[in-house]
Each structure stands twice: as C-alpha cells, then as structure tokens.
Write a structure and sequence with these properties.
Number of helices: 5
Order of helices and strands: HHHHEEEEEEEEHEEEEEEEEEEE
Shape: globular
Distance between the termini: 103 Å
Strand content: 35-45%
Strand order of the largest sheet: 2-3-4-5-6-7-8-9-10-11-12-15-16-17-18-19
Radius of gyration: 41 Å
CATH architecture of the largest domain: Beta Barrel
Helix content: 10-25%
Length: 505
C-alpha cells in the first residue's frame, strides 16, 4: 500500500471521528466536550455535510498512540535530504577596469559641477517658481490682461532690457495674429530710455501655408542711441580702451523664406540702410570716440563721421538633417550666406560683399532635447574694388547677439572672424531652455590674415531663454570673456543680460 496514504489515514480517521462526535452532539445523541453554561458555544444548526471516507480493507483501524509511534519510526528511518547551500551573489567581482571606465568616470567628475549648477541652481528653482506662479493664477491673469480677442490672437506686452554696460530700456510690443485674413501677422514694437535713446519697428508677415514657416515679410527698424561701445580695430584691442559713439540707423527690408525641400531652407532679402553718426554719451564719465580721436588716443576708425546710405541684397541657405517633429535632436546643420552692399550717396562709388558660413553637429544625449553641439563659424568682408573704405560699422564684429556673447556688441571688429562654439542646451521648463556656451574665437584681417591660435579669446556664458520664440525672446545671460591667450588669457570682461532682445540691440 502507498506509504503516504498509510501515513495520512490515521489523521483522516481522527478528523472523521471528531466530526461525527460534533454532529451527534448537535443532534442530542451524545455528550459534549464543552461544559454547559455561559462559556459553552452555541449549538450549530448546520447539517453535517462531511463526506464519508471509504476505508481500505487492508488497513487496520487506528489505535490511540499507535499512529504517533509509527510516524516517529518512519521519520527516523527516512533518508536525510541534504540542505542546499545558498548561492553567494557578491562573489562574482566587478571585472577588470578598462580605459573606457576610467574615461567615463573622469568625465562624470568633470561635468558634475555643471550638472549641479544646471539642476539645482537653474532648473529646480525656476521650476518651483513657475509652479508656484501657476498655482497662484498670476500667469493666467496677466495672459488675459495683456492678450485680448476671442482666441487671444492680439495683445500688447511690456518689454524691458538691461544689458549691463549699456543703457537699459523699457518698451512695448504689440502683435496681431491672423490680422484681417488667416496667416497674416503684424508686429509693432518700441523702446526708450530718454529722448536720446529711441527704438521702434514694424513687421508685416504673411505665412504661405498653415503649419509652415515659409513666409514673406516687410519690416522697418529704427534705432537712435548714444552709447555704442568701441574698442578699436583688430584682434589685439584692449578692454580698457572702451569709448562711446552714437548713431541713428534705419533698416528697411523685404524678405522671403521658403523651404526648397524637407531639409533645405532659403532666405532672400532686399533692403536699404541709412546710418548717421553722432557724438556718443556713455555711462558716467566714459570718453567718447570723437574725444579719443581728437586727443590721439585712438586712430579714427574707417568711415567715422562719413554718414552713408546703402542698397543691400542678401541670400542665405541652410541645410539641416534634423526633423522638427522627430523625438531626437541629433543631426547636422550647414549654413552659408552672402550680403551685397552698395553705397547710394553721391560721389561715393563704393560697394562690398559679406560672406560666410557655419557648420554645426548636434547630439541629443537622451532623446529628451538635451543637446550637445559643436560648431565652427566664419565671416569675411571684402571690397569689390580697390581704394574702397568699408565703414567700421559694416565690418565683421563679435559680441552681443553675434557669436562670443560674453562680450558687449561690437567688442571686436575687423575684416573677418573665426569662432568655434561648444554648446549644451536643455529644457528647463515648458517653453524655457537653458544654455551653456564655451566659445573660442576672434576677429582678424582680410581672409583671416594674421590668424594664430595665441590670438584667440575665450567666451563662456550660461543662461536661460524662451524656446520657440523668434520675436523678442526673453533671455537671462551671464558671461565672462578673456584677453587673448597671447596676452595671458585673463578674464577682463563680464556681461549680464536680462530682458528681451529687441531692435534696440
């Protein structure tokens, strides 16, 4: 007989006996094991449904005590089962350390300050502030106040600009989307900081197709300000040589932007430019350019005091492998462009051409728009004939909204420039990006004449800016720029920019 069944039958028989006794008590045919009284449980009224267990005729009825002795004997005679030794999972080791492991660990240590800065100084505080504002309802209140119409397609928004080292400004920007007809947009803006600092502009744009950026636009911009900085011409200019000059500049342009294919975009523009120079007025006791030239501290820059009027024509082509709808921001972008300028003043038969380009590679580090990019850009300005003086305000320049943004606009001026840029861009919050730039470059003579690595400068900057906004984006930028490496490369320039980039720059 099966041994397991034989061992189990005594317990089953005992259970059957107890069940039978309980049923008999419930029916009144036997004595209860409970004492009648307050502690006795109530009598069950549920009929006995315990099935009858068939008895094996070869098995003798169980006798009290016999089953326990048999079980004990079987347990003593049963073979001993060896215990399984628990595996040790931490004895496999980490394997040999490779050069890649060392390089990756070193890179993590080097970039950890950047991560801590971007994460805990920029992203999280800004995110917490924006979240608190959203919960308070302030953004919606401002949105409804400054923007109006059934779909908020029109509005007037205040602007401000504080570029330390220049005069600040305040102003307004008004816009009307789908004005009169669908896809017709108008933008007007103005800013000021007193009667001698005025700027204004108007843009009329028509977008050809819904969901497209292809458009034609007409624009006019006027800037009259007295505090343009000037440091001299060439790669070796010094920060301490800063002087100021004033000017009134008017730009009129008719442009068209059109995609020639999914990855190729063309920009073409015709226009005119008027420039009138004035005596400058800086901050505090800053010397003016006219005073410095009169004293002999600086040579007069080319074309200084010679007002001019230009006819301009420009084209630019961009080839970009990135798809705006793709999740990844990795790819390559190539840009090339030229601008032809012709003087329209009497007895000023002069013209020149500006041309250059940029090549940029992008790597999306995590498919979440955390993009690292490396670019090289250059620009050249050449006269179209001999004995032509190109005004210094039309030469290649670095600083401001141009490359090397840690410097003020016009910090470096000459016939050409070359700049290499390493940039990291990441999303800080909705419609807000963080940027870190490390730039190396400088201006040089014609066709990079006298170029050498020791004449390069360093420009480092970090900031945040609104993403996807081409007109007057909000920016906060802090940067530091150096002297040429030939002169020691020490940091001698700082820039703090807060506000919106307007036509006043």
């Amino acid at each position: 007989m099966n041994r397991r069944l034989r061992d189990t039958l005594p317990a089953v028989a005992l259970l059957a006996a107890v069940t039978s006794a309980t049923s008999a008590h419930a029916a009144g045919g036997g004595a209860s094991t409970f004492t009648k009284g307050a502690d006795a449980p109530p009598t069950s009224t549920v009929p006995d449904s315990t099935p009858t267990i068939p008895q094996d005729p070869d098995v003798k009825p169980a006798v009290a005590g016999e089953s326990d002795e048999a079980s004990a004997g079987d347990a003593k005679n049963a073979p001993e089962i060896p215990r399984r030794t628990p595996p040790v999972y931490n004895s496999r080791g980490s394997g040999p350390v490779t050069g890649g492991d060392v390089a990756l660990g070193t890179l993590r240590v080097l970039v950890s300050p950047i991560y801590l800065l971007t994460e805990y100084v920029i992203r999280r505080p800004i995110g917490a502030g924006v979240t608190a504002l959203e919960r308070s309802g302030v953004p919606k209140t401002l949105y409804d106040f400054f923007l109006f119409g059934p779909d908020h397609k029109a509005g007037v928004v205040p602007t401000f600009l504080a570029d330390f080292g220049l005069r600040p400004s305040v102003g307004l920007i008004g816009f009307w989307s789908d004005a009169f007809v669908p896809r017709h947009n108008m933008i007007a803006q103005g800013s000021t900081w007193g009667s001698d600092w005025l700027a204004g502009g108007f843009t009329d744009k028509y977008v050809f197709r819904k969901g497209s950026t292809d458009n034609e636009a007409t624009s006019i911009n006027v800037v009259d300000r007295p505090d343009h900085p000037f440091y001299g011409i060439g790669p070796r200019t010094r920060q301490g040589a800063e002087v100021r000059y004033g000017s009134t500049r008017i730009d009129l342009a008719q442009s068209i932007d059109h995609h020639l294919g999914p990855y190729v975009a063309l920009h073409a523009q015709l226009g005119a430019r008027w420039m009138d120079y004035q005596d400058g007025k800086g901050l505090g006791s800053d010397e003016t350019l006219a005073q410095a030239v009169q004293k002999g501290d600086l040579p007069a820059p080319p074309g200084f005091r010679d007002d001019y009027t230009l006819f301009t024509s420009a084209t630019r082509i961009a080839i970009d492998s990135r798809d705006a709808a793709a999740a990844s921001g990795s790819g390559v972008r190539f840009e090339a462009g030229e601008e032809w300028d012709e003087s329209l003043r009497a007895n000023a038969n002069a013209s020149w051409i500006k041309y250059g380009g940029a090549l940029t590679g992008f790597v999306d580090l995590d498919a979440k728009k955390r993009v690292l990019s490396l670019s090289v850009a250059s620009l050249f300005v050449d006269p179209t004939q001999k004995d032509v003086t190109i005004p210094f305000t039309e030469l290649a320049s670095l600083g401001g909204i141009e490359p090397m943004r840690a410097y003020l606009a016009g910090r470096m001026i000459d016939r050409s420039f070359l700049v290499g840029t390493l940039e990291y861009r990441w999303p800080v919050w909705n419609a807000l990006d963080g940027t870190i730039k490390a730039e190396f470059g400088n201006v040089f003579g014609a066709h990079l004449d006298d170029f050498k690595p020791s004449l390069l400068r360093f420009s480092g900057s970090i900031g945040v800016e609104t993403a996807g906004i081409s007109n007057s984006p909000l920016q906060i930028i802090f940067g530091a720029g150096s002297e040429t490496f030939e002169h020691g490369g020490q940091i001698d320039s700082f820039r703090l920019f807060i506000g919106t980039t307007t036509n006043g720059l």
